[in-house]
Every structure is written in C-alpha cells, then in structure tokens.
Batch of 2 targets.
Target 1
Amino acid sequence: MREILRAIFDVVFRMPAGFVVTLKHLFMKPVTLDYPRKKEEMVPRYRGLHYLERYDDGSERCVCCGLCAAACPADAIYMEPGENERGERYSKVYEINTLRCIFCGFCEEACPEEAIFLGREYEFAYGSRNEFIYDKEKLLVSHPRKENKFKKIYRRVRKAYGVPEINQ
Amino acid sequence: MSFDTVIFIISALVAVFGATMMIVQRNPVASVLYLILSLVAQAVCYVQLSAVFMGAILIVVYAGAILVLFLFVIMLLNLRGTEELGESPNAVGRFTKYLVAILLTIELVFIVKTATIPAAVTGIMNEAVDEFGSVSQVAKLMFTDFLYVFELTGVLLLVAVVGAVVLAKTERNESHSLAQDEEGADLRESAGK
Amino acid sequence: MLEVIIIGSIKVIAVVSVLMGGCAYATYLERKLVAFMQHRIGPLYAGPWGLLQPIADSVKLMFKEDVVPDKVERVAFTLAPMLGFIPALLVFAVVPFSSNFTMFGYEIKGVISDLNIGVLFVFAIVSLGAYGLILAGWSSGSKYSLLGGIRGTAQMVSYELSYGLSIVGVIIIGSTLSMTELVEQQSSILDWYIWKQPLGFLLYITCAVAETNRCPFDMPEAEGELVAGYHTEYSSMRFATFFVSEYAYMIAVSAVATTLFFGGWQGPLLPPIVWFCIKVFAFMVLYIWLRATLPRFRYDQLMGFGWKVLFPLAIINTMATGFWVIWMDGIN
C-alpha cells in the first residue's frame, strides 16, 4: 500500500519536475557545433602547430642556436646547422616530431631570434607516422606574407613578463 | 469450395501438423515452437467457427503467456539440443504408455462419432451470426448458467497460487527465522536499525 | 469479392509503407530530440538538417556483412527477428486511422479490418511479441543475449497483465471491443476516454513503455550491463529488423493509445487521417521525452513495480470503473 501511494506521489508530483527540466534544456543553445563546417574561434594564445618565421626580406630568422631543442621537454626538435652564401649560420635541417611534441610552447619562449611560434592550426592528422614529422619545408612560412599578428601578441606577452625586446 | 472452407482446411492441417511435430521433437524449444504454431492455427479455427472470443483468448492466454513461461523455464534450465530419454527399465512402464495411447485413441474415436457437428461453418466475414460466440454471449453464460463452475475454477486457481507461494517461500522462512533469533537481533541493533 | 480484395491490399500496402517510413523517421526524431535535450545537434550530414540520415542508415545496414556466429541455433536465430517484427505490423490491421471516405467512387472504410473484437486482437498480437525477443536471446548462445532474453520475457509477461487490465476500464464504459466504435464514441474532446479513465491511461502508458522495452524499462537491452541484450549477436539486416520492430511497436502502441484514450481520428477542421497522425506523433514525442528524462530501472525494482504497484492499481481501476458504471445505471 505504501509503495502504491509513493508511486502515485512520484508520478504526479515528482516526475513532472523531471520533464520540465528536459523541456527547458530542449530550448537551450547546443554546446556542440557542426564541426567541419563551423569551427570554434581559437583563443589568441592557443598553442597549435608550429611555424618558422622569416625576416621581412625573406631570409630565415632561425640561426640554429639549439635553445629550442634544449628547452623542449619532449625532445621533439632536431636540427643541423649550416652556413648560407652570406656566411650566416642557419638551420640546414629543422624537424619537429609532432607526435612527440606536447605543445607546451617552451621552444617559442626560448627562441632568442623570434623565429619559432606556435600557431593556431590544430587539424593535422595523417595516415602514417612519418608524415607527422614536420621538416622545414612545411614549417617555414611562405615568403611574401602579411604582418604576423601572433607575433604582436607574443611581443605583448613578453613585455608583460618583463622579457627584454630584441632588436631586429 | 468457398474461401472460408479453404482457410479452415489449411488451418486445421497446420494445427494437426504442429501438434504432431510437437510430440515428435526431441528438442524442447522446437517442441514449444510447434505448440505455438498449433495454437495459432487452432485460434484461426475458432475464429472460423465464429467463436472469436475463444480464438483471441486462446492466443492471449496460451500462446501469449503460458508458452512464454514454458520457454522461460527451458531457457533457465538451459535444456539445449536433444535429450536422450531412453526406454524405461521395467516392463510395466513400457506397457503402460502403449495402453494409455490405445485408450486415448478409442476415446477420441467415440467422441468424434457421438459428437454432433453443426451443419454450416460460418466465417468472421459473415455478419448474420455476430452474436454467437461474442464476448457478451460468453460473459452472459459464464455469469448466469455456469456461475458456480466459474467461481469454483477461480477458487481452484487461487489455491494453486497460494500453494505455489508456500512452496517457493519455504527457504526464505528459514533465513527469516535466523534473522529473528537473538544473534540476528544483536546484529541489527549494532547496525543501528 | 475481387473489389474487396484489391481495395484491402491497397490499404495494407499503404499502411505498411507509411508505417515503415514512420519507423525510419521515428529514429531521426528520436536522435534529434534527444540531442537537443542534451545540448547537442544530432545528425546533420545526410541531406538538409540530416533529413536523409534514416535512409543512409538503412542502406548501410543492408550492405553490412550478415554475421551468424558459430554456436547459434540456426533456425531459431533466423526466425526470431521475423517473429518480433510481424506482430508489430499486425496490430495495425485493426487500428482505425480515418473515418470512412469515398475515393474513385468506392466507399472505403478507414480501417483495414473492422473486427468486432479489435481490442482483444491487439492484446493477442502484442502478447506474441515476446517470442522474437525470447528466441533471439536463447538462440544466440551468448550469455548477454540469454540474460537479455530472460529479463525481457519476465518483464513482458508480468507487464502484460497490467497492460490488459488498464484498458478494461475503457471497454467497460464503452461496452464494446470494436476499435471503430470506441473512436466514434469519442466525438468531442470532452468525450475522450482519458478524462473518464485518467488512472487507466497512466497505467496503459507505463505498461506500454515496458511492453515495448523502452527507457526507463529497457532492461532486455541495457547497454551498461548486457552489451546490447538479446540482439547482441545480430548484425546487418537481422539487427535492422529488430531495430525497426522496436519502433514499429512504439508506433503501434501509440496508435492504440490514441484510439482508446484520445479520440482516434476525431478532430475539427483537418482531415481525420491528419488528426490521427498528429496524435500518434505526440505520443512518439512523449516516448522520446521519457527516454531523455528518466534513468533506467533496476531489474528488481522493475519487477516489484510491475507486480506490487501497477497490478493492484489496475485491478482497483477496473473494479472502481465497474462499480461506477453500475451506480450510474442505477441513478438513470
């Protein structure tokens, strides 16, 4: 008898409350999105796929000092130094194994030449492990390009942390 | 030959076939399935004879509930595949089954011989006889002429239910008495109940 | 005679094809509605707003490999999906979906077969629905399937009693077993049987959910503990048959509820068949809403609820209705 009364009580008074909850949620904005068609705007300091920056004249910024590789906690960066026709040191080979990389951004912080940055690209998936190793060809930005806005942000961040500005 | 007759013959044949196969089968699940087939065919026969209520009840009660329970029990006991029953060891047992079979056959023959078969078989499509075998007709008979028998059957079923509950409850009672003795009471007290 | 057969066949084909389409889009409705209730979007890719998703799904299921595991009982394994599917379709033989109408000069009844024991027929058919499930569970030769089958059987047998008793009230008041007559009695919204049988309706809807093995009573296929319950070992079209029959059952039960409690095709302005579809649709939404709202019962709670709460309530409802009718007769 008690069970019956409780069941009636639940159905009449408690269950409608549950139904109201689901009904309310029916009209709320969905948290998921229509992914490949619509993409989430990444936050300015998002750390995605790396890229190597150039000077305005097109020459590479990277001087192959090895600080990024030293800072890398995942040991994902490999580089070999070389000398260009002007007698300047540059990286002949520069590879980032993105399977090892943990996207911590230490390389970016360590770089004295403002050469490496972490971009906002996060959609890189391949069929084989070899394709995940990014060489210079993939990492270097194309030569004539507009001003990098992430660099500006990065400078602001450096200022905030009290890191001295480097002259170009 | 009318449409109704064709349906009747088919369903009657299916009913007999199902019943035969049910006995012949060694696999219990197959037996039950053939019994269901037979019951459904019988229900069709009832409907053909304008006893629609009987037909529906046959399916609801027997095919829908009782045979489901049969299958349920078979599943629980996990009677898989065929089972060798073998001949019974003593001569009496061997003899009895033939005797029973012969007696049943004789009985069947007598019943069929003495029964009066109604002249016309009317179908469900026929509107003229819709009162016969309808729910109200059956109910009227059940609650007037056969009230006494009906109630007695009800009591019999009630006794069966009580018996089943008593049989199933025995084990539970022992554990219950164990919980009621002093040790159990102490335990319950210490558990703070 | 030939005319009757042709008209009947056309009606059957029409009803079955509409039903199949309904089943397909019921899956779409469920996925979309549950998604929105969970702040998701649901299927989007096949066609505009994912409207072709059911078709894509059925094509996918058709072309999948039909795996028959090694240790199954072949005959029962093959038979089970069909036995589950056929009763769901048969229910629609007696559900009146429209008033009588004239088309191409023929007077056509709005029901496939106007049985004078329509309600009993529905019971008889629904009670046969357990076989598909039980045989699937037993023949698969897997413990999850067997457990799902056993649970499903016990559940269906115990809820069938309350399911049957829950409509007896309506039958007593209407004093007929014919579905068409029951619909004709509910000509205005005030005559709907839900106002006269509110408890009966609640019992009906609860038992119907249990009979169709839907959430919160979806014990036979409880994903959390039984993988997929009785259809664990099924794949391809056999699985699709189970899937479709679940939705066909839902639509069937909704159609019967509409007929018995909500005046069937009766309604103002719009054509009867549209009213019927609207009401059935509302029931389907209720089903899905239930699923999105309530968590699954535990098995012992489920059986306890069926026998200790629903069954006594159904008997009380039946007796009270009987007394009420006799009392009213005495007054008049």
Target 2
Amino acid sequence: MKKNWPLWEVFVRSKNGLEHRHFGSLHAADETMALENARDVYTRRSEGVSIWVVESKHITASNPQDNGELFEPAQDKVYRHPTFYKLPDELKHM
Amino acid sequence: MRDNLIKYILGIADNSLILGQRLGELCGHGPNLETDIALTNISLDLLGQTRNYYQYIARLSGNNKTEDDIAFMRSEREYINVLLVEQPNDHFGYVIARQFYYDVFHYLLMQNLQNSSDETLAAIAKKGIKEVSYHLRFSSDWIKRLGDGTKESHQKIQEAIDDRWVYTNELFMKTEADELLINEGVGVNVLDFKEAYYQKVSQVLEEATLTVPDEKYYQKGGKEGIHSEHMGYILAELQYMQKSYPNLKW
C-alpha cells in the first residue's frame, strides 16, 4: 500500500469574472477530500468563490530541457510585442 | 429571567468552548497538514461562536464583566458543557466520532435557534449555521471514509463510535433553564429534533458500513457541572494564562 495520498493541484477563482488561477497543491485520498482540503488550506481567509482540483498526474508539463526550442526562438522577435506604440498619458494600466 | 437566559446561553456556548479547546490541542499534531488545518479551522469557528455568546452574556451581566471572565475565570462546576465534548482525542477515529455526534446535534440546534424570539441568539445562529453545515459535512465524510476504508480504519472508527455513543443522550436532556426559555419562545426544545438526530446519525453510519450502537445505558452530568476526570486537565490548560496573569491581553 502506498503510504502517501496522491498529489492534487488546486485552482481558485478569487472573484466572479476572473479566471481560476493555480494556488498550490495538496494531498488527498479522493476528489471530495481534495475539494475539502483545498477549501481549508487555501480559501479559509475568503480568497475564493470557486475551486477546481485536478490530480497532478493528469497534468502534462513541458520538459525544462526543451526550453531552448520551445521558448528561445521568441526572444529575438521583439516585433511580436506591442512595445512600439506610444501610449497617451491618460491610458493607465497597460 | 436574566439568570436563566444566561444559563441557557452558557449551555450552548460552553460546548463550543470545550470542543474548540479539544480541537485546538491538535494544532500541529493532526495526521497530516491538510487535516490539521481543517480541524483547527473548525476549532476557530467554534471559538468565534463562543465569543459571540460570551460577549452577549457579559452585556447581560453588567458589572463590567468581560467575555474573558466567563471563558477563563469560572470553576469546573460552573461549566455546563455536555460530557461528549470533553472526551479526549485518543486517536483520529475518536476525534471524528466526537465531532460527528456533536455536529449533527449542533446543526439541528442552530437551525431551530434561528427562530428564537431573542434577536441576538437568532443572529448568532444565522451566522453560525453556515460554519456548522461545513463541520457536519467534514465529519460525515470522514465517518464514511474511515468506515468504508480499510479493515483497520473500519475497526478504529467503529470502536470510537461505540465508545462515544453513551454521551449522545445527554444532548437531549432538558435543564430547568431550557424549560423556562422554551416557554418564552427563546429556547429550542431539543426533544423536537431528537428523532431527526438519531435518524441522521444512523443514516450516515449505515452509509459508512458501520453498526449503529444499540447500547441503552447513557452517561450524564455535564449539564449540571459534574464532569469527567478529563475536565480538570482541559481547564488547567485553558485557564493557565488568565489565572497566572489576571487581565492579560494579547
């Protein structure tokens, strides 16, 4: 028998209209327990209005070794960033 | 009338205080991080409710009495919590069994107390029932998980359910203050939901593949201030700071 409960990733929507964001991970034996644990560990100071949990093994992650081919080609293509516009001063938070 | 109202409120609040204290003992000692936080959350919910009740009692008493006086400065015989809540944590099954037996009762009590003609009590109940619904959900889920889990978990939760069963009946014993305040429309008649209580308990236990105890011998005394041998230890820890450093504030 495995001694540790499986690992789960927790996503919390902090306000209606916002997206769920990754909050962290925790251990739980099943999905009901994962939701309850997430409620207790991550939302007890009223951080959220909705919780998603997903078992970590269901997440496919990119391999750090592939970072070269995956991400570096984008770095020398500054024209892909909208940084050449002059923004009027009245526009904030851009 | 005022003294009876105070006594009635204490009968509810002391349960929350002592159960909260018992759960607080688990802080840093839970079976794992997640359950540790969950149990101390419940403890804090209960202590928050206790404060509401004690602040109300302090207001009713006058004489500059504070919530701290009521929480810390009474003698053992003046606490009127039921025996169930002072029972020790022993193992995790005992923590869950005690919690479950109390949560089912607490939930039904809060549901009824919302209709109290005393506005403060009704408001505390309205606020508290959301917390208590979660407590009940938490403990019921654990009863099922342990009962329907491994052979060992089944045996341990059954042991705890059997041992704590004898303390359930005291929840439904009416005190003199109960009788008087029921007539006033302030108090809840606990007998109104006794049947619902045992039905709910049986339903969850059966779902958990556990045997519902049929022991007919019950323990009582807490409501008259006659406590088990555990109470002295609880109070020693609970009261130490206030008794050693009177009027100490955080």
